[in-house]
Amino acid sequence: MKDYKAYLFDFDYTLADSSQGIVKCYRNVLNRHGFTSVSDDDIKRTIGKTLEESFSIFTDNHDPEFLARLKKEYVAEADRIMTDNTVLFPETVNVLSALKKSNAKIGIISTKYRYRIKECLDRNLDENIVDIIIGGEDVEHPKPSPEGLKFAIKQLDLEKSSVLYIGDSTVDAETALHAAVDFAGVLNGVTTSDELAAYPHVAVMNDLNGLL
């Protein structure tokens, strides 16, 4: 793998495991509305999608007002319990620190809210390591739209050829493809190596140490 001037990351299942918090938040909302048959694995398979997309899948309801109401309830649950139920992967701090020491730019592009990502990072990471965070509230079109990724590249004043996007899901792989940047998959989540390898990639790694 070549050296890049910037390493831009997805957050959930890429830098951190927030699956326990995500499952709890969805479960509390879904149970409240009588959707008790959705499994933990069903929930984990939607990590990386927007809240509206996920609730539509779980409930088979596509009404925007209904989905917006469930989203509001989820955000309230997440404000209460998400950060305490999110942990960085063991290698995350060391890998990001090493990349930063090599003078690379570090960024995060996620469907998760920026303030929630920052809450987690502030507990675990030097504030000078991450150069830019693009969250779900910062874009009009969520991933796999390349909007957030392209915006980060523009803000960092970089060429696409000097950027690597790292993520755990096919949504991330599609995002990199639409943005015309290199992609590296990481197997921290529920997406398989074969699923990631079906997209253009420079690597599919067991964990983030593969970047070093």
Order of helices and strands: EEHHHHEHEHEHEHEHE
Strand content: 5-15%
The parts where pLDDT drops under 50 for at least 5 residues are none
- On the 0-100 scale, what is the average pLDDT? 95
How would you sum up the major sheet?
A: 6 strands, parallel
What is the CATH H-level superfamily of the largest domain? HAD superfamily/HAD-like
Tell me the strand order in the biggest sheet. 5-4-1-6-7-8
**Number of separate domains:** 2
Task: Please explain how this structure is put together.
By secondary structure, the chain is an alpha/beta fold. It folds into 2 domains: 138 residues, Rossmann fold, CATH 3.40.50; 66 residues, Putative phosphatase, domain 2 (DNA polymerase, domain 1, Orthogonal Bundle), CATH 1.10.150.240. It has 9 helices and 8 strands. It has a 6-stranded parallel beta sheet with strand order 5-4-1-6-7-8, sandwiched between helices. The protein has a two-stranded antiparallel sheet with strand order 2-3. The longest helix has 18 residues. The radius of gyration is 17 Å and the shape is globular. The mean pLDDT is 95.
What secondary-structure arrangement, pairings included, does this model have?
Elements: E1 6-9, E2 16-17, H1 19-32, H2 40-44, H3 51-59, H4 64-81, E3 87-88, H5 92-101, E4 105-109, H6 114-124, E5 132-134, H7 147-155, E6 163-167, H8 170-179, E7 182-186, H9 193-197, E8 203-205
Parallel strand pairs: 1-4, 1-6, 4-5, 6-7, 7-8
Antiparallel strand pairs: 2-3
Helix pairs in contact: 1-4, 3-4
Pathway: Organic acid metabolism; glycolate biosynthesis; glycolate from 2-phosphoglycolate: step 1/1
Catalytic activity: 2-phosphoglycolate + H2O = glycolate + phosphate
Family: Belongs to the HAD-like hydrolase superfamily. CbbY/CbbZ/Gph/YieH family.
